[in-house]
Amino acid sequence: MMSSTWLFRATVITTIFLLIIISLQYTDRMNFNVGYSSARKPQIKPFNNTSSSSSSSRSSLLKPHGSVLIKNMHTGFLTKKYVVISASVPNFSNNTNFINNQGQAEGNTRAWGYIFQVPNTARAWIRLGYSPIVAITIDYPNLTAKAKSLLAIVEKEMKNIDVVAIYFSVPSYTKVRLSQLVRLIPSALNIFSEESFLMTSDADLWPGSQERYQISANKKIHITNNLCCGMINFKSKRYRQFPMGTIGMKVKLWNQLLPFQKFFTFDEFITFDYIEFYKYLKEYANGQNIDSPAKHGSNLWYIDQIFISVKIGEYINSMGEKSMSYYPRFKCRRIDVWNLSGMRLSMCFDDAHIYKDQPWLETHWNLMNTLMRCLHNTSTVEKMNSYAAKFRETYKKLENNMST
To answer: Which of 64, 109, 168, 361 is the most buried (most CB within 10 A)?
Structure first.
């Protein structure tokens, strides 16, 4: 009798133990949280926990073109769901049509609008359980003091919400075109577990309905609004063109599709061969001069979208459509924030286009508040309003004082 009782107890304890293990593994699989071996830690230790915001510290690390700086990164591999947002840092000019000597627009209000919106877009993703990674192209050695003062406001807001920022130091004439491409790069930087999930996003696009961004554990690639953009021809083949915001997959698949690690050197510092990287993408420009300014709507403007669409198309041809998780826009809708005047919002919207040309202006920001109050609690809205007010005040002072 005694032995059967102990046998029963041992069986129960063993069963409970196994159930706990299975439960933890299932949770890890659904949340894409995995451990990492200490032997596989990222080779960027000099940049870990770099929290100093002083210009001298940042300048010494970013001075050479091709250097890479990662700020606010915790020690060890990043191992959960991330969204990658990108933008370039312009110089400050009172002339919205100012063109630098490489033929690249500098200092215009739309360029500043993109980098201003980065923390706001990051907050929209945080509410869905994603941690933001911001990829930033910057010509720091030639950045004016006025541009640095505006950048400091953006950096402080990013730090307040625990954003990991990756700075790519590149010449001014490459900043804009590379800013669209560097959101495809973070998986190659050895800072993520292979099981981490990375989603791309546009800096001027806020996610809405949570259903649209839930990740299927049994699918390989997640794409929203997959029917938006028609077909493209590339090397006598036709591919469906997918939008850059949003495409998601695990790091190991990003690295399988995109051979970008060869453009980085991992030593005491990370260096980025941006010249060879851009040459590699030349064939996806469909005959356009890759060194010409990337005009909105041109093949150069959409080179990142063309490139990733071809790579995903090749993957689908090999693995089949069953590996894909699509979320076309038919259940809800897209909102344009400039059309929100007098409109009542519900949570049934897929995503929202936000202002990128002087979004900090009060007339624009008031409409942004309509969207913000739909997505965020009162405390978060107040913090976003405070950030916009500080940026607005500083920008106005710089506009009114161009003598220095």
So the answer is: 168
Q: 330-335 long-range CB contacts below 8 Å, 24 or more apart?
A: 331/209, 331/211, 332/208, 332/209, 332/212, 334/225, 335/208, 335/371
Q: What is the SS3 string spanning 344-361?
A: CCCCCCCEEECCCCCCCC
- H/E element, 308: helix 303-319
Reported as half-sphere exposure (CB side, CA atoms, 13 A), residue 214 has a value of: 5
Instruction: Report how far residue 184's alpha carbon sits from residue 48's, in angstroms, rounded to the nearest whole number.
Output: 21
Strand partners, 238: 233
Does 246 sit behind a cis peptide bond, omega within 30 degrees of 0 on the bond before it?
yes
Sheet containing strand 334-336, edge to edge, reads 205-207, 351-353, 334-336
Query: Which conformational region is residue 377 in: left (phi greater than 0), alpha (psi within -120 to 50 degrees), or beta?
Result: beta
Pairing type for strands 205-207 and 131-138 reads: unpaired
- Residue 353: what pLDDT? 87
Amino acid of residue 75: T
Q: Are 296 and 305 in contact (CB under 8 A)?
A: no
Looking at residue 330, its pLDDT comes to: 59
Fill in the amino acid letter for 396. Answer: K
CATH class given for the domain over 57-333: alpha beta
| Spans of all domains in the chain | 57-333
Q: What's the token pair of residue 120?
A: 């706001």
* Token pair recorded at residue 47: 């940049």
Letter for the amino acid at 380? T
- When mean pLDDT is compared across 115-124, 252-261, 321-330, the lowest value belongs to 321-330
- When pLDDT is cut at 50, 70 and 90, the band that residue 16 belongs to is low
Neighbour count for residue 150 (Cβ, 10 Å): 21
- For the segment 154-172, the average pLDDT, to the nearest whole number, is 93
Interatomic CA distance for residues 367 and 355, integer angstroms: 9
Question: 3-state DSSP call for residue 363?
Answer: helix
pLDDT tens profile 251-278 = 999 999 998 999 998 877 789 998 888 8
CB atoms within 10 A of CB 24: 11
DSSP helix/strand/coil, 252: helix
